[in-house]
Amino acid sequence: MEPEDAEELAAELHGKPVDVWDLLQIAAGTGLTAYVVWAGILMPGFRKVPLKLQVPYVPANANQVENVMSLLKGRSGKMVDLGSGDGRIVLEAYKQGFRPAVGYELNPWLLRLSSYRAWKAGYYGKVSYCRDDLWKVDLSDCKNVTVFLAPSVLQLLERKLLVELPDEARVVAGRFPLPNWTPTSMAGEGLNRAWAYDIKTVRQSEQERPEGSTV
Description:
Elements: H1 3-13, H2 20-30, H3 34-42, H4 62-70, E1 79-82, H5 88-95, E2 101-104, H6 108-121, E3 128-130, E4 144-147, H7 151-164, E5 170-174, E6 185-187, E7 194-198, H8 199-208
Parallel strand pairs: 1-2, 1-4, 2-3, 4-5
Antiparallel strand pairs: 5-7, 6-7
């Protein structure tokens, strides 16, 4: 939630009973209780996920979203965001013409926040946010994939993407690059940088890789 959203919510709630969800939205908007939210509310969503595959929620900023979407410019078709968090990338993808635009997220609180953001923007019901484990989702029909995940899981993700995605698919990673793939193009600098990978090119590189080398 953006700070102005939190201010609007606070105004709307003035003089009304406030429940836990209302407080969460305001706290998330101000950023004053990030650790408490993570430890007390967000962390339980990961209890069934192996520790090495857990990824803490860190929302993408406006520059990161812009750089990611710039690397998908001119493309179309299905777009999925793996670990979609508060849903902002899925929402932006829909605005730019991707159909369908789908986010996969395990945490129910973040899914509620995603739905709120979609409703506020006037796109509720037009984008999809699914409570699914990204490791179990079938990506064989996806042509555009975005990921904002921790470095600890990216090597495992490379294997899944390479096995499941069609040749015409493009993967865009934000904040951290995929460790063993050579990007087709990049956008932005520092923590705002995003990397694009074309699956057909990655597969060709893998075939040319010397036998016995690690992926």
